[in-house]
Structures are given as C-alpha cells and as structure tokens.
C-alpha cells in the first residue's frame, strides 16, 4: 500500500542525484518549476556548461546561434514573468526574452514573430551570476497577435523541443554576429514535475498539458570560430571595391570629351550627353550659332533654334 506513495519520492531523489552537478532543484529552498504566471520551466542550461554562458551577452549570443533574437526593437507589450529558482532571491523578473527570428535580421525577425507567432524563450539565472550555476528557461510556442499570443496546443513541449532540437546540431550552432561555435548535448530529465495539466500542483496556464520532461542542455564553447562570416564579409567588401573601381573607370571614359567635339560647350545636366545623336545635335547647334552671329539676324532666331534643340534632345 505504501509503494505507490513512495515511488514519486524515490523518483525525485534519483532525479536530483542524477542532475546534482547540473542545477539545484528549486523546490529544495521553496522555489518552483513553474513561473508565477503558471508556465513551466522546461529547459535548463547546465552548470557544467562553459562558464562564459553565465555572462548575459554570451547567453544571448548562443540564443542568436539557435535562430532567436532580442525583443522587437527592444520593446515588450506585456509584463515580465517571475520565477523563484530556490536560490534565496524569491520571485524575480525574467532576465530576458528572445523570439524566433525566422531567419531574418535580428529585430526584423523578432518583430515578425510578434505578429505571426512562433517560438520564444524567457530566461533566468540561478544563484549569483559571478559563480558557476544553471540557467532556467521557459520555452513555448504562441499564436499570432490577433489571438493575443495565447499558447498553441502542446505549445510548452513544442517550445522546449524547438530549443533543444536547434541547439543540438551535430556540427554545432554558429552565432551570426560573433562567429562563435556552440556545441550542445541534451538529456531529458524526468521526476521534477508531473505530466498532465499541473506543475508541482499548480494548474498550467491556458490549460495545456505537458509530458513532464525537462531538457537539460550542456553547452561548450568551441575554441574554433567559424570563418563563414569573415568570408562573406570579404566577398562583400571585394565586390564593393571592384564595383567602385569599375564604376570610376567607366565614368572616366564616358565623361572624357571626344576630341572631335572638344570645343563644344556641353550641358552636364543633360543625361546621355555623349550619345552620338546628341553630339550631332550639339554640333549642328554650334554651327548654327556661328552662322547667326556672322549675320544680321536678331537674337530671337538663336533662341528659337535653342528651343528646337531642346525639343529634339528630349
């Protein structure tokens, strides 16, 4: 009779022992695996990850390497969520929120996600940031803005799997901004909260069920960096320099006066002034002007000829 009651406790003790080096179970110090807004903390970056991940800019760089980006123009319409990680700090606001960028430039992608919905993650650092420790994430998939960003069916498990799946590319993920390569492994942990519609006895937001698993990620920063970005930058720079040189060369020869018509006054405001037809018109105009000046014709004749030329030139 006691066995069914003891099994959950035994499972929890085994889970805590298995992941003791990765994170501290928040419940050991009155914390919770669910935010104050009733969303599960379903991804943990292990304390055994490269220590640099405890620096927020490095964590954000890693999220960039997965395809996530900072909030749309750094703005957030709703209030921040709070979590108690059992580290003595009580409930604290999320440190940040990153949205799926759909392969677009950073803010363009996160703004698009804000409109059409998709995957997003909130994160908190457990314990003192200056010390080695874990990072807890609440990942989910949401509807578009017309549906008030409600979570999609199975959205919490989908959000977790999106993060874990994108992170564990065998060759590593590459930051588009720094070129840093992140190598990540994942282990799915059970026993910290139950499957179903509650987490640690708290009803889950939107009444969306979960499978009770936590993705524990161990991230190692590679000593190598990708030269992919530097090569792209090199080719862009080379193309720019080449086009500038070719453009300058072409402009020099296009604008150099022809020896045949070098005595003509050329109106530089006119396009295609070196087109042969325009050159002929200019030459005819100049010859007519000389004839007019040599005669006793009135200046109005020259003005009329000029108007005729302007019409032809257009």
TrEMBL record:
Species classification: Eukaryota, Fungi, Dikarya, Basidiomycota, Pucciniomycotina
Membrane found in the keyword field: yes
TM annotation in the entry: 231-255
Residues in the signal sequence: 1-17
Species of origin: Leucosporidium creatinivorum
UniProt KW Membrane keyword: yes
Keywords: Membrane, Signal, Transmembrane, Transmembrane helix
Protein name: Uncharacterized protein
